Amino acid sequence: MNQLIKPNRLKQGDTVATISISGGRAGDEDLLWRYKLGKERLTNLFGLKVIETPNALKGTDFLYHHPEERANDLMWALENLDVSAIFANMGGDDSYRLLPYIDFRVIHDHPKIFMGYSDITTSTVYFAYAGVMSYYGPNILTPIAQPGNLDPYTEGAIRKTLFSNEIIGQIHPCSRYTPIDWSDKRADEVIWTKNEGYQVIQGKGIAHGRLIGGCSAPLRQVMGTYIFPKKEVWKDSIIFLEDYSPYKSLLAGLHELRGLNAAGIFKHASGLLTSKISDDEKAMLLKFLKDEAGRADLPVLTNVDFGHRTPMIVIPVGALAEIDCDNSTFSILESGVI
Hints:
Layout: E1 15-19, H1 32-46, E2 49-52, H2 60-65, H3 67-79, E3 83-88, H4 104-109, E4 113-116, H5 121-130, E5 135-136, H6 152-162, E6 169-170, E7 176-179, E8 193-194, E9 199-202, E10 206-215, H7 216-221, H8 231-234, E11 237-242, H9 250-262, E12 271-274, H10 279-291, E13 300-302, E14 309-310, E15 315-316, E16 320-324, E17 329-332
Parallel strand pairs: 1-2, 1-3, 3-4, 4-5, 10-11, 11-12, 12-13
Antiparallel strand pairs: 5-15, 6-17, 7-8, 7-14, 9-13, 10-16, 16-17
């Protein structure tokens, strides 16, 4: 992967635009309170000014039927001289529908921080195609507006990646985690589970590569389009891959891996990061890598904190990273911003 353009770092007092580029729940009456909570936390914790893109709070029905307006919101935020960063309100399932309306020159000519996860994967592909770094990390509704308060691990990841132009360095696993929760709870009502840390399930030595990936389902939705990263982009990369769906079977997960393998992403990669996966999923992944992808040598580090749970790290797409299999560590070897 060629080195991507890095946006400028965030500073206290900067303006962030919130965007519903995928799902529109932030503007639905029953969840508007949660959007307001996330906005308040960005203001109080980080000292940011927060504004909405023109259609961000128009709700699920309007935004589903108007993908062109979601794309227009992105162009609006990029061209707005007052806006320093763009944060996604939430994920969803149809960001691929924006493709006909994206002006990639606008993304390239106005490099700004753009952050989100889940279906926001598609938008990070838009940015990579335009040659600009983006950030797979927290959405506004979750985990920034998570019940109780914003956990220190996620807050620290945002500060280290987006507010500092120093090398990010080693990313330590969180000490505890909790599922994504859409309810309104006090901090003492949130149930936390002790985290067992990273696990190397395959590979040895040290792997280096540029970070590329995201959620597997959105990646598959843009396979076959001209923006899907070419095989040479995946060469020597460290893939981060989240295979998330509460309804997905092991066979469906295997089908997604097979589809991505057909696109050539595993063949010449340097390493693979996954979020938390079950023992059955680990067995399926290892069998697939050995028998189908021919990559029994590929270093694989699991239980990295970028999946659908709280807390989570911020991954700068395109940044140089390292997996140390012998010490079960993961590091980002450059800054996320300038």
